[in-house]
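Here is one chain, start to finish.
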Amino acid sequence: MATHTFALLKQRDINSCIERACDAVSEWESAWCPSSGIEIDCSETCDPSVIQPGGLWTAHRLTQGSLVWCYCPTEFGKQAERLIFDLNDALRSTDRHRESALAENVANEAVDELVALLLNRLAGPTTAQLEFGTKPADWQFRRHSGTALIKITIGGKTLSLLIPSERLPSHEIARKSPPREAVTPLPVALNKIEVRLIAELGDVEMSLGHFASLQLGDVINLSIGIDQSLTVFTENRCPVGVAHLGKQDGNRALEMFKIPHN
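Its structure:
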C-alpha cells in the first residue's frame, strides 16, 4: 500500500495563496468585468464533498513536471457569462440570447484565462498539456495531506484549484534561497578568552559581565525590555558580535552572531 508524507498547510501558505489569487483575479477583472464580486478562499483539503457536483476535473502539468488540478462546475461559466455581459436571469433565458454561441464562447475563454492566471501565480508556469477527467488521488483530500484548496466563487458557483504544498507560493522563496552560513559561537570568535562584553544601543551602553563561554540563545537577565539589535564589543572596543534581545521564558534571550571579517 502506498504511503504519503504527513504535511501541514501553514497559515503562511494560506496567506500567500489568497494574496496571489487576489492579484490574479484583479488582473482578470480589469480585462473582463470590473467589480465582479468574486470571493476567494483557501484552506486545507479534507473532504471531497466540498467540491460542487456537475463539473469537470482537468489536470494541468507544470513545466517542472508536477500536476495541479482544476475543477470547474458548468454553472461557473454561466455565472461568468452573466457578469461579462451584465445579464440577469430573465435576459439570459430569452431565445435570442440562448441561441447565441458567441457569448458562451467568450465566457469560456474568460474562464480559461482566469484559470491560467491563477495557476501561473499560485504554482508557476504550466505546459499546454491538459488531462481532462483526471481527478486528484483520494489521499490528497485527506486532512494533513498538505494540499491547498483554493476556491474562486462567482454567484454561489465555485471554481476549485488543488495545489500540492511543495508547489505553493510560500515554498518558492525557500526553494530559491541560498543556504545560510553556519553561526559561529561567540567563544570561537573570542578564541575562548574570558573577556568583559559591552552592549551598545544608540547612546546607551551596558555591561554584560565577564564570560568565558556564551552560546547562541543563552539567556541573560537584562534591565531593559527592547526588541532590536545591539552591537557587542570587548573592552578594547573590538566588535565581536550582534545581539538581539527577545523574550524567552520571561527572561531576555541574548542571541549572539559573529560579525564577518571584511
